[in-house]
Backbone:
């Protein structure tokens, strides 16, 4: 009789440990950031950005901006002006553009950036 109690207790503990392992590995409990999904490829986003801002692509990446997938493309014009263009990763629409501050780029990270 005692043997069957030990066997049941062992099975119960094993089941609880097994179940808690699945709970910890599921999405939501351990992950803090959603996986970004883009219907537009990086190449298509670069093409859309270069159509309005011709030049050499310096950098491009997929980012999460307020829960929205956005490609950020940096392009240097023939005159050396660097623009940062944000492209909607779903529609390919140009969301915004800004000229990079030349002084900021030369100085590197500011003291405010170091206060993270």
Residues:
């Amino acid at each position: 009789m005692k043997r069957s109690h030990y066997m049941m207790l062992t099975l119960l503990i094993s089941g609880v440990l097994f179940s808690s392992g699945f709970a910890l590995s599921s999405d939501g409990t351990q992950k803090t950031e959603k996986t970004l999904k883009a219907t537009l490829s990086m190449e298509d986003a670069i093409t859309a950005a270069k159509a309005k801002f011709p030049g050499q692509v310096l950098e491009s990446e997929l980012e999460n901006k307020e829960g929205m997938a956005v490609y950020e493309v940096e392009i240097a014009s023939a005159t050396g002006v660097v623009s940062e263009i944000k492209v909607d990763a779903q529609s390919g629409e140009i969301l915004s553009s800004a000229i990079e501050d030349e002084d900021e780029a030369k100085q590197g990270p500011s003291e405010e950036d170091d206060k993270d």
About this structure: Residues 1-32 form one domain.
